[in-house]
What we know:
The chain is an all-alpha fold. The chain contains nine helices and no strands.
Amino acid sequence: xxxxxxxxxxxxxxARDLRSELLQTxxxxxxxxxxxxxxxxxxxxxxxxxxxxxYHYFADRETLLATLVGEGFEQLAQQxxxxxxxxxxxxxxxxxxxSGQAYVGFALSQPxxxxxxxxxxxxxxxxxxxxxxxxxxxxxxxxRLNRIVHGASANExxxxxxxxxxxxxxxxxxxxxxxxQLPAGRQRQGHLREVAELFADRxxxxxxxxx
Length: 211
């Protein structure tokens, strides 16, 4: 006797990771139209599943957004950690360049998620512990970079200086005039590299390596 499927359950397919598909579709919708374009119904439609399927993974729209934001902060923290680790075998300047490229590079690779990560009106981190924890890990890497660069002189103001540089550059390239001037990804990456190196020269006081 054939077993009955529970009504509203996602399609039974061992080869399909529906939760990951829903998250990827959500990222695409954010990239295309911002948070206003994201609804559970549209995510389901674009993912080719029933309208009820997303609710088996996400209680509501804000929970879905919180998942995306939490994953975004986690990925950002990992990339910043890898850049900071360069300080153990390289120079302060090299670490600064790598950190700047990691932060802005993340923003350019996931623009939709990046745009909502720092907006409590879209996703209130106080409601979601995983967002607070992942955000704290990313902030810890900023503080670590601050100590690498400024040593005993590191304080909140010097941390803000470093953060404002990379966050401002990311916003200018994504949604500001630099994005209009440099529409191609290759152009943006080249400009990012140039600015990161110039900033590192100014902040570290170290000359760039000679060829």
